[in-house]
Design a protein that fits this description.
By secondary structure, the chain is an alpha/beta fold. It has one domain: 3-Layer(aba) Sandwich (Rossmann fold). It is built from five helices and eight strands, in the order αβαββαβαβββαβ. Strands 3-2-1-4-5-8 form a six-stranded parallel sheet. It starts with 8 loop residues before the first helix and ends in an 8-residue tail after the last strand. Keywords: Hydrolase.
Length: about 210
């Protein structure tokens, strides 16, 4: 039996479904760190997502879009130890000279960080309705909560799906939710109201 999807809250609220244009956006790369590529935090599809994030970064730079890197700090000895290689931003998307790096300790990249100030200094103040392009790790966690926060602050987030990845988790009923299913569900939930989601970097206009 076929299922008819509900009308998204974006449409019911009169919000645009148009993706961001790179030249009119800030690219925010969230936690594209080595920890997600191997070891206890390894994500399904991490290598493909890093490669897509690198393509997105190259397109954003070519379009003249400002780029902000977000890096999670879990403290010494953690999977997010910024003093160790595991916590470093992956080489493929390493910050260029002049590109700010915002360090966070919560899933929401805006919480207790300088991100909002950095965006304001770039001419993208909260409440401006301006576009942010988001990508990184993990889809259901920091990408999700950063997109929600951006929306709540009055930005227009667009998420690039294939430049994100996550991992399988146990559901409350004891079954396992595969990584691909969790990623799909997280992105679908965002499209209801918080963000526009596009498959790849190529789906964004320069």
């Amino acid at each position: 039996m076929s299922i008819t999807p509900s009308t998204p809250l974006r449409a019911l609220s009169g919000l645009s479904g148009e993706p961001a244009r790179l030249s009119e956006s800030v690219l925010v790369l969230i936690d594209v760190q080595n920890t997600y590529r191997s070891g206890v935090m390894a994500l399904e599809g991490a290598e493909e997502a890093v490669a897509e994030a690198a393509r997105l970064l190259a397109r954003a730079r070519a379009a003249g879009a400002p780029v902000v890197h977000v890096q999670h700090d879990g403290g010494a000895g953690s999977p997010y130890d910024l003093t160790a290689p595991v916590g470093a931003i992956s080489d493929e998307v390493a910050p260029a000279e002049g590109e700010p790096v915002v360090v966070k300790t919560f899933p929401n990249s805006f919480h207790a960080t300088e991100l909002e100030k950095v965006l304001t200094d770039l001419g993208f103040a909260a409440g401006s309705g301006k576009d942010l392009v988001l990508a990184g790790f993990m889809t259901h966690m920091c990408v999700n909560y950063t997109a929600q926060a951006a929306f709540n602050l009055g930005y227009r987030p667009t998420v690039v799906a294939e430049a994100t990845a996550t991992r399988a988790l146990a559901a409350p009923d004891g079954t396992v939710v595969p990584a691909a299913e969790l990623k799909r569900a997280a992105l679908t939930a965002l499209t209801d109201v918080f963000a526009v989601v596009v498959p790849t970097a190529a789906d964004l206009r320069a």
